[in-house]
TrEMBL record:
Coiled coil: none annotated. InterPro entries: PDZ, PDZ_6, PDZ_sf, Pept_S1C_Do, Peptidase_S1_PA, Peptidase_S1C. Keywords: Hydrolase, Periplasm, Protease, Repeat, Serine protease, Signal, Stress response. This is Probable periplasmic serine endoprotease DegP-like. CDD domains: cpPDZ1_DegP-like (cd10839).
Length: 466
C-alpha cells in the first residue's frame, strides 16, 4: 500500500513538473488574440488603370470563310479592374490605419473591413516606398486601436503572433518565434533602409501590412515580406520594426512624406583580406568606396578607403548596418563616427543630410585606350582621355587597357576599362604617380586598391608576390 502511494505521488509530481514546463514553453495566446483582433483590418484595393485584356484573333482566321469564322473566334473576356488585398491595423481611435505601401500602391479605391464587418472607403494619407509603409484614414466610430511596443527590446527566440487575412481568410492568427534581428534586404531600387525582424511565423499573401504582436499584446512589427519558392510560407518571414514604423507614420501624418538621413557614400562589406589590408582584427565595418562631392560625408572629411566601424555610438558589423542607422536619423542631426584610415583609428563628426530621390541608372560606355606598359602588376595602363573623365566624372587616375591573366592585377579583379585611383595607401593622380607608387609597393603584403568601374568606385586587395 505504501509502495503504491509512493508511485502515485511520484506520478503526480511528474505531471506537475511537465505541466509547468509546458506552460513555460508554450504561451497561452487566446486572450491576446481576442483582445487585439478588433484592431486588425482587412484591406481590399482596386486599380482601374489595369484591366484584363481580351484575346486577339489568331492570324490564321484571315483564311477562314466568313460563314465559319465565328466558330474560331475566342470568347471575349470581360474587362475588370485589378483587385488585390492585404491587412492593416488601427493605431488611433480617430481612424488612422497602418499597412504596407505595396498593398495600396497604384490603387484608386481602398476599402477597409473591420472585424464586425463594417466597411469604409479609406483615404491614403501618405506612403513611403523605402520602408514599404502607408498611412490610411477612415471616418468611423467605436474603433479599437492597437498599442505600439518597443521592437528594440525584442530578442531572438521570443514568441510573437501575427493576425491578418492570408489568402483572404479573414483575421487568421499564427504564432512563432523571432528568428533573427536586423536583416538587410534591399528593395527593388537596391536601397536598404529597414533592419527587418525575421520570424518563423506563418505569413502568406494577404498578411502584408498586418501587425506582429509580442506576448504583451503590443505591436512590435509590421509584416511585410516572405521568402518562398512555392508562394506560401516556408518559415521565413520579415517584419518592419515598430521603432522605425512609428517615426515613418509620424512623418506621413505630419507632412505626407518621409525625410531620411543621408551621408552620400558608396559602401561595401569588408572581407578577410580587406580587413588584413586595412589593419582590422576581423572583417567588420563598412568600407567606403565612393564619396559624393558636396555630400555630408565629404564635408565631414570621410574619404574613399575609410572603414566606418561605429556610427552614432552603434557598432557597424556589416556594411548593411550603416544605412539602417543613418536613415533613421532626422536630417540636420550631428553625430560622431569612428573609422579606420591607413590602419589607424580616427573619430569624426558629421551632420546628416537629407536623402535625395533614387538616382538614374548610369549609361554604359565603351573605352578605346592606347597602350603604355606598366610591369609589376601585370596590367597595361594609360592616361585617362578627357572624354572618359567627363563621362564618368573622374578627374584623376590611370585607365586600364589590358590585364595579363595570372598576374596581380588579374587576381585583384581588374578589367579593361577600369580607372585606378589608389594603390596601397597612396593616391594615383596620373601616369607619373602610378609609376612611382608601383615601384614602392612592398612584396607579399595585401594592400588595398581602389578603382572606378563604369563610374562606380570599388575596393579590392592586391598582392605582389616575390
Amino acid at each position: 500500500m505504501i509502495k503504491r502511494c509512493t508511485q502515485y505521488l511520484l506520478l503526480f509530481c511528474l505531471l506537475v513538473v511537465t505541466g509547468t514546463a509546458s506552460a513555460r514553453g508554450l504561451p497561452e495566446l487566446t486572450e491576446l488574440i481576442e483582445e487585439n483582433s478588433p484592431a486588425v483590418v482587412k484591406i481590399n484595393t482596386l486599380d482601374r488603370s489595369r484591366v484584363a485584356r481580351g484575346n486577339n484573333a489568331p492570324q490564321f482566321q484571315q483564311d477562314i470563310p466568313d460563314i465559319f469564322r465565328h466558330l474560331f473566334e475566342p470568347r471575349r473576356r470581360q474587362q475588370r479592374p485589378v483587385a488585390s488585398m492585404g491587412s492593416g491595423f488601427i493605431i488611433s481611435d480617430d481612424g488612422y490605419i497602418v499597412t504596407n505601401n505595396h498593398v495600396v500602391s497604384g490603387a484608386d479605391q481602398v476599402t477597409v473591413t473591420l472585424t464586425d464587418r463594417r466597411e469604409y472607403e479609406a483615404e491614403v494619407i501618405g506612403t513611403d516606398v523605402r520602408s514599404d509603409l502607408a498611412l490610411l484614414k477612415i471616418d468611423a466610430d467605436d474603433l479599437t486601436a492597437a498599442r505600439w511596443g518597443d521592437s528594440e527590446e525584442l530578442q531572438v527566440g521570443e514568441w510573437v503572433v501575427a493576425i491578418g487575412s492570408p489568402f483572404g481568410l479573414d483575421y487568421s492568427a499564427s504564432a512563432g518565434i523571432v528568428s533573427a534581428m536586423g536583416r538587410s534586404i534591399p528593395n527593388e531600387s537596391r536601397e536598404n533602409y529597414v533592419p527587418f525582424i525575421q520570424t518563423d511565423v506563418a505569413i502568406n499573401p494577404g498578411n502584408s501590412g498586418g501587425p506582429l504582436f509580442n506576448l504583451e499584446g503590443r505591436v512590435v512589427g509590421i509584416n511585410s515580406q516572405i521568402y518562398t519558392r512555392s508562394g506560401g510560407s516556408i518559415g521565413l518571414s520579415f517584419a518592419i520594426p515598430a521603432s522605425l514604423a512609428q517615426d515613418v507614420v509620424a512623418q506621413l501624418k505630419e507632412k505626407g512624406r518621409v525625410d531620411r538621413g543621408w551621408l552620400g557614400v558608396g559602401i561595401r562589406n569588408v572581407d578577410r583580406d580587406m580587413a588584413e589590408a586595412m589593419g582590422l582584427d576581423k572583417p567588420v565595418g563598412a568600407l567606403v568606396e565612393q564619396v559624393s562631392p558636396g555630400a555630408p560625408a565629404a564635408e565631414a572629411g570621410i574619404m574613399p578607403g575609410d572603414v566606418i566601424t561605429r556610427f552614432n555610438g552603434q557598432r557597424i558589423g556589416v556594411h548593411g548596418d550603416l544605412p539602417h542607422l543613418v536613415g533613421q536619423l532626422r536630417p540636420g542631426t550631428e553625430v560622431s563616427l569612428e573609422l579606420m584610415r591607413n590602419r589607424k583609428s580616427e573619430k569624426l563628426k558629421v551632420i546628416v543630410g537629407t536623402l535625395p530621390g533614387a538616382d538614374d541608372e548610369g549609361v554604359q560606355a565603351t573605352v578605346k585606350p592606347s597602350s603604355i606598359i606598366g610591369g609589376r602588376l601585370g596590367i597595361v595602363v594609360e592616361q585617362i582621355p578627357e572624354g572618359v573623365k567627363q563621362r564618368w566624372n573622374v578627374d584623376t587616375g590611370v585607365l586600364v587597357k589590358q590585364v595579363v591573366p595570372g598576374k596581380p592585377g588579374a587576381k585583384a579583379g581588374l578589367r579593361s576599362g577600369d580607372i585606378i585611383a589608389q594603390l596601397g595607401f597612396e593616391e594615383v593622380g596620373d601616369m607619373e604617380d602610378y609609376k612611382t607608387v608601383v615601384k614602392e609597393l612592398p612584396k607579399n603584403e595585401l594592400l588595398p586598391i581602389r578603382f572606378f568601374r563604369s563610374g562606380q568606385s570599388t575596393f579590392r586587395t592586391i598582392k605582389i608576390e616575390s
